[in-house]
Amino acid sequence: MNRGTKLNEAVEQLERRMIRDALRLSEGNIARAARELGLSRKGLYLKMERLNFLSESVRSPQSSQTVVSEDLAPSDESMSS
Q1: In this model, does residue 23 exceed pLDDT 90?
Q2: CA angle, corner 72, sides to 35 and 24, nearest 5?
Q3: Apex CA 57: angle with CA 51 and CA 62, to 5°?
Q4: Which of 23, 44, 59, 72 is deepest in the core (most CB within 10 A)?
Q5: Which comes out higher in pLDDT, residue 54 or 64?
Q6: What pTM was computed for the model?
């Protein structure tokens, strides 16, 4: 964390990192990632929308679940500039 980082920026960076890690561990499965994070599926969707994760989400052809590729989720580095 940089010296000039505001609390809300630090919280967003932490949320992004935790969501990205949960999505990676759940192989993009939103419901499993939400459970891992202690959120409802809707709660995770709302956080992802606020943090711009959903702008490039993809729909799994085998199911009705939305999956997010870890390559498409914003990284901490791309958000710090």
Answers
A1: yes
A2: 35
A3: 145
A4: 23
A5: 54
A6: 0.66
Domain count for the chain: 1
CATH number of residue 20's parent domain: 1.10.10
Give the sign of the dihedral formed by CA 43, CA 4, CA 24, CA 36. Answer: negative
Angle at 46 between CA 60 and CA 81, to 5 degrees: 90
Asked if the structure places residue 45 within a domain, the reply is: yes
Q: Is residue 1 part of a domain?
A: no
DSSP string, 21-53: HHHHHTTT-HHHHHHHHT--HHHHHHHHHHTT-
pLDDT digits (tens, 9 = 90+) for 47-63: 999 999 876 554 444 44
